[in-house]
Write a structure and sequence with these properties.
The protein is mainly alpha-helical and about 130 residues long. The chain has five helices and no strands. The protein has one domain.
Length: about 130
């Protein structure tokens, strides 16, 4: 679920947002962010926990750690690279949004692609493991 939501944001929502005026783009980002952040954080944490639990309770196969590590890595990536930008965007007033704000939203979209990629890799690894490879 995390990968699907992240993919939707990267492929649909962010490009559409960047077609809006700076104040509208910022307003849309803030609305989306406040709704999506808790959901994505919970899904990433639940997926990572599930992967670790699978390793300890179902399998001693160290490959079970790979998907958990991949999906769990979105959490430190978010805190290290995306949260500083999130804070700057959240602190910007809608009426003060300008071309610099749009550049920040573009940077945010590129950083979010990293999260999307990690989520998709984790999903592929979970499927790979489930198929018994």
């Amino acid at each position: 679920m995390f990968a699907g939501i992240a993919l939707y944001i990267s492929v649909v929502e962010s490009p559409a947002r960047l077609r809006l005026s700076p104040p509208q783009a910022l307003a849309q980002w803030k609305t989306s962010y406040t709704r999506a952040a808790p959901l994505q954080a919970a899904l990433a944490a639940a997926s990572a926990t599930s992967g670790v639990a699978h390793f300890f309770y179902e399998s001693a196969d160290q490959r079970a750690f790979l998907p958990a590590l991949l999906i769990g890595s979105v959490i430190p990536v978010t805190f290290a690279f995306i949260m500083p930008l999130n804070r700057r965007l959240l602190a910007t007033k809608h009426e003060d949004a300008n071309d610099r704000t749009v550049q920040q939203l573009e940077s945010w979209a590129h950083l979010h692609h990293t999260r999307t990629g990690l989520g998709l890799l984790a999903t592929a690894a979970f499927v790979w493991l489930a198929l018994g490879y």
